[in-house]
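Notes from the 1:1 (GR / supervisor)

We went over the backlog. Supervisor wanted to see one worked example end to end before approving the batch request, so GR pasted a single chain during the call. The sequence is below; no edits were made to it. Supervisor asked that the structure be written out right there so they could see what the output format looks like.
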Amino acid sequence: MTRGRQGICADFVPRCDRRVGVPLTGTRITARFGAEGELSGDGGCNTYATTYHLSGDQLAIAPSGGTEKFCSEPIGIMDQEAQYASALQTAASYTLMAAS
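Structure output shown during the call:
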């Protein structure tokens, strides 16, 4: 995660959640944490939006809504997106790390 003027932006980092693994080639998973509790990003095929709440190092993310298109390529993209959405919903804490 990197802190910006508008809030915090996170690119997918494989070590954050081993259930998801490394993003498929040609895809990008993102999460943009806004300063006012808004969260939006890209799951690799679809975009999503929701809200979040921080308390110390504890994180609570509300159920998200987003686009509902089907992507057939790369193979496995929809499974990757479903795994990411599940991991996002179960996130309970966060760690800030320097951008590399």
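Supervisor's comment: Residues 1-9, 11-19 have pLDDT under 50 and may be disordered.
Batch request approved.
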